[in-house]
């Protein structure tokens, strides 16, 4: 029998970027299920699953920092706190993101701006708000690509995800004294909208699953479960580290 852990996020406030689908959507739904007031941000339209009154959604570009300022200000004005930040938003530009010797530098800048700079800015906005109420917890989404090269390189994506590891550690070191924890989730191959190219290709899905020791692709819910743990009191002595959720892929 599978038993669900008991989480209680009543009277807690969370901001989740990349909340328009995939991992971000599952994190929003999970946090709201356990009582948190959740503010989602994404350029995509609001998911139809967001029926809980605890969820508020902003359809906005996370690289428009003047808009992000307004959202963070509104969140703090409405709830008087910010307990959690999930930096989930990211982009993977198949066909455009290439080797460093081939990539168009405008494409490179686009990927870095979305995957790294916007996450840095969200954390920069969150830290002072968390300091005002005695601390908080951040989870940043990286990738197994942060640890390795690839014969079919997507160098902007891989570099941005490697830098996310350092961003999280730097925050953890600097602001532990303020009760702020910062950790990273490192997903393996996961069925999200970023991987729509596999959506109807059962043969490819099967081949990839056979390469993963646990025998299946990851699900957005797997990453949401890890995020709930890292936001909860069960992880109160954990900061500056990575939770690898990859089915054992990195064992190869």
pLDDT averaged residue by residue: 94
Q: What is the third-level CATH name, the topology?
A: Rossmann fold
Count structural domains: 1
Number of strands: 7
Unreliable sequence segments: none
Q: Determine the oligomeric state from the structure.
A: single chain
Summed up:
The chain has 252 residues and is of the alpha/beta class.
Fold and architecture overview:
- The protein has 252 residues and is an alpha/beta fold.
- It has a single domain, classed as Rossmann fold (3-Layer(aba) Sandwich), CATH 3.40.50.
- 39% of the residues lie in helices and 15% in strands.
- A 7-stranded parallel beta sheet has the order 3-2-1-4-5-6-7, with helices on both faces.
- Strand 1, helix 1 and strand 2 form a beta-alpha-beta unit.
- Helix 1 packs across helix 6, helix 2 runs parallel beside helix 3 and helix 3 packs parallel to helix 4.
- The relative contact order is 0.15.
List the helices and strands and how they pair.
Elements: E1 13-17, H1 22-33, E2 37-42, E3 55-59, H2 65-79, E4 84-87, H3 105-132, E5 136-141, H4 155-175, E6 180-187, H5 202-211, H6 220-231, E7 242-245
Parallel strand pairs: 1-2, 1-4, 2-3, 4-5, 5-6, 6-7
Helix pairs in contact: 1-6, 2-3, 3-4
Distinctive features:
Rossmann fold, 252 residues, alpha/beta, globular, 39% helix
């Amino acid at each position: 029998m599978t038993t669900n852990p008991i989480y209680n996020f009543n009277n807690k406030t969370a901001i989740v970027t990349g909340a328009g689908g995939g991992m971000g959507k599952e994190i929003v739904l999970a946090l709201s299920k356990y009582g948190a007031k959740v503010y989602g941000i994404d350029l995509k339209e609001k998911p139809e699953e967001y029926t809980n009154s605890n969820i508020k959604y902003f359809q906005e570009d996370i690289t428009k920092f003047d808009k992000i300022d307004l959202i963070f200000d509104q969140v703090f004005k409405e709830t008087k706190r910010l307990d959690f930040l999930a930096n989930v938003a990211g982009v993977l530009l198949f066909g455009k993101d290439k080797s460093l010797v081939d990539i168009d530098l405008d494409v490179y800048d686009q990927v870095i701006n979305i995957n790294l700079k916007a996450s840095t800015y969200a954390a920069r906005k969150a830290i002072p708000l968390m300091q005002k109420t005695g601390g908080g917890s951040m989870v940043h989404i990286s990738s197994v690509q942060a640890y390795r090269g690839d014969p079919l390189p997507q160098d902007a994506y891989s570099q941005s995800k490697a830098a996310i590891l350092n961003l999280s550690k730097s925050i953890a070191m600097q602001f532990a004294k303020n009760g702020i924890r910062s950790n990273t989730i490192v997903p393996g191959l996961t069925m999200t909208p970023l991987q729509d190219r596999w959506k109807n290709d059962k043969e490819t899905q099967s081949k990839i699953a056979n390469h993963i020791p646990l025998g299946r692709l990851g699900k957005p819910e797997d990453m949401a479960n890890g995020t709930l743990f890292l936001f909860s009191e069960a992880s109160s002595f954990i900061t500056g580290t990575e939770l690898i959720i990859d089915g054992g892929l990195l064992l190869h």
